[in-house]
Amino acid sequence: MRARHREIRAATAAALALTLALGGCAGMTDTQQRAVTGTAMGGAGGAALGAIAGNAGMGAAIGAGVGLLGGLLVDQHEKSKAEAYDQGVRDGRSAR
User: Is 54 left (phi over 0), alpha (psi -120 to 50) or beta?
Assistant: First the structure.
């Protein structure tokens, strides 16, 4: 039982370290920020679930991969929204 508590504490510490590291995202592009955020959130969530299941490292790795894909999907969605908005502005200006 004590080993399980250590593993959960290690996973929590890793999640906290990743969260604090996100403070350095100021110079990144939106795509990079979304990818890093998704990876960190997925890794933290995966580590927590993995610790409960008995393997925090594997959970973190899987969670990070899923989080990265999620972050990139969010990025593509945000870019398509921005492009649709810009297209609407262009269409509105050309209709004058």
Answer: left
CA distance 55 to 67: 18
pTM of the model: 0.68
**SS3 category, 82:** helix
Give the tokens for residue 5.
């508590």
Enumerate the domain spans of the chain.
2-94
Residue 42 predicted with pLDDT over 90: yes
Q: Are 34 and 72 in contact (CB under 8 A)?
A: yes
In this predicted structure, the answer to whether residue 1 has a pLDDT above a threshold of 80 is no
Neighbours of 95 (CB within 10 A): 6
Structure tokens given for 96: 């004058």
Helix, strand or coil, per DSSP, at residue 53: helix
